[in-house]
UniProtKB/TrEMBL annotation, chains A, B:
This is Helix-turn-helix domain-containing protein. Gene3D superfamilies: Jelly Rolls (2.60.120.10), Winged helix-like DNA-binding domain superfamily/Winged helix DNA-binding domain (1.10.10.10). Residues 55-116 form the Cyclic nucleotide-binding domain. Pfam families: cNMP_binding, HTH_Crp_2. It comes from Steroidobacter flavus. Residues 164-237 form the HTH crp-type domain. InterPro entries: cNMP-bd_dom (IPR000595), cNMP-bd_dom_sf (IPR018490), Env_Response_Regulators (IPR050397), HTH_CRP (IPR012318), RmlC-like_jellyroll (IPR014710), WH-like_DNA-bd_sf (IPR036388), WH_DNA-bd_sf (IPR036390). The keyword Transcription regulation applies. It comes from the Bacteria.
DNA sequence: CGGGTAGTTGAGAGCATTCAAGCTTTGTGG
DNA sequence: CCACAAAGCTTGAATGCTCTCAACTACCCG
């Protein structure tokens, strides 16, 4: 995390005496609560958590090459991860919504292999990785959850590896966004695109103009209604059909 | 593993009394030996290993949807993982050389999300995942190694996600193959392409004709010499330059 | 109101694909 | 041992999807 001044607990969420809370968005809470650990272990987990932020739009959370010490779950906002190549082209690797974990691909090299930037106002739960790994040896449920998260990310990364058309990739993008928002209790059919067309393009390996054109065509065909950053999925079925090939590999 | 009859230890490699060996290709051996664990823990690890195979060319190691119970390190040969979409197009997700681990992306769903097939004669080290995970709680070095392997695969999958030209992708493919062979003690500049042009194409998201054409062009420009499945890298520097953008994100 | 960023739309170009044909190697059976 | 088939590979020509370039519009914010 590049900005040390932000590593303070968020007011109102810090420890208050003997009580401790799990933030509802943290990816570890559910798994560990379910596993029925005793209170002391849960407290061990809890004290690892550091609520940091808010980061404002455009602010970096970490940069490529920064030493890796912690993973973080998004509490609110959207995070984009990306790398820049020698020609200055930006390659977006992923968007992270509330509840999702960033930094997992940094473990193998002990450095962040990409940049992470806030697309809007972002608050994170930060977990020291050495500490959570150590704790995981005492909490098999936590270890299992970490393995799962890592494994899931391998599959996610494979999403875009396939040889698909612009339409297929865009449909898959919209459907996965919808599912992820839906899983967090947001509307599955109406949501805000927190990223620019260019970001979407760099993520889907398209030109931003192509993103515009696909949006327009999808709208003309009645599949979506899009206006600036607001989007409504109007024909989910058709979108799912288009996305089918892309998503079956997850 | 789909073929139960192959789950026998390979003759000559099984336990012989009190002695136990690590097979040199197993990704876990080095890390765990280094960590200086006592003999009983190392034996625990060793008894988890099951040497299976050989699988012949074209034989499936697991299929999409098979229940996930084990990960496996390739001992010898090459494994291809792939999925097939609704139009019957094959999407190759990866090639696995000796020392590399397959099945890591199956953890999150408890099912293999893709097919794995032997490209030549393949022998594997199989590890029951529940067992190795349980052991990892007692061997932090092993847990760390598992985290690393998983994290590494996330990065690998991102390799092909970028928006790169056929030349860049092919160069990156050849360079990574070279590095991986080299890391295993094989020649870095002369090796056998154990996969077909079509497999390479499906992996790099190209048409097989394009793969042919790029090979020819690379050869005409003196970067490689390729004849059937035999390839020699003649101008590594130029290849690395081409691959630079693709590889910097790993 | 003006500047800047984001987004849209059109026209032309280019890279990769598709279609098609021919070549090479390998394996099989007469 | 040869013929033949099948699969893998190569090469050429034409099409097409997506990109690039360019101009224009809409919106936001000082």
């Amino acid at each position: 995390m590049s900005d040390a001044s932000r590593r303070r607990p968020v007011p109102g969420i810090a420890d208050d005496g003997d009580e401790f809370h799990f933030c509802s968005t943290c990816a570890f809470s559910a798994a560990c609560l379910e596993s029925g650990y005793d209170k002391s272990l849960l407290r061990d987990l809890h004290v690892l958590v550091e609520h940091i932020g808010p980061f404002h739009e455009g602010e970096h959370i970490f940069r490529e090459g920064d030493p890796f010490t912690a993973i973080a779950a998004v509490r609110s906002g959207t995070v984009k991860t990306y790398v820049t190549d020698h020609e200055g082209r930006e390659h977006v690797q992923g968007f992270f919504l509330p509840g999702e974990v960033i930094g997992l691909n940094a473990i193998s090299q002990a450095r962040y292999p990409s940049n992470a930037i806030a697309l809007d106002s972002v608050v994170l739960c930060r977990f020291s990785f050495p500490n959570i790994a150590a704790l995981a040896t005492r909490m098999p449920g936590l270890q299992q959850q970490l393995f799962k998260l890592l494994s899931l990310d391998i599959g996610k990364a494979a999403l875009l590896s396939g040889n698909f058309s612009a339409d297929e990739r865009m449909a898959a993008f919209l459907i996965t966004l919808s599912r992820r928002y839906s899983a967090r209790g947001f509307s599955p059919n109406r949501f805000l695109l927190t990223m620019t067309r260019t970001d979407i393009a760099n993520y889907l390996r398209l030109a931003s103009e192509t993103v515009s054109r696909v949006f327009r065509r999808f709208q003309d065909e009645g599949m979506i209604h899009v206006e600036r950053r607001e989007i409504e999925l109007k024909d989910r079925k058709q979108l799912e059909t288009l996305a089918e090939n892309v998503l079956r590999s997850i």
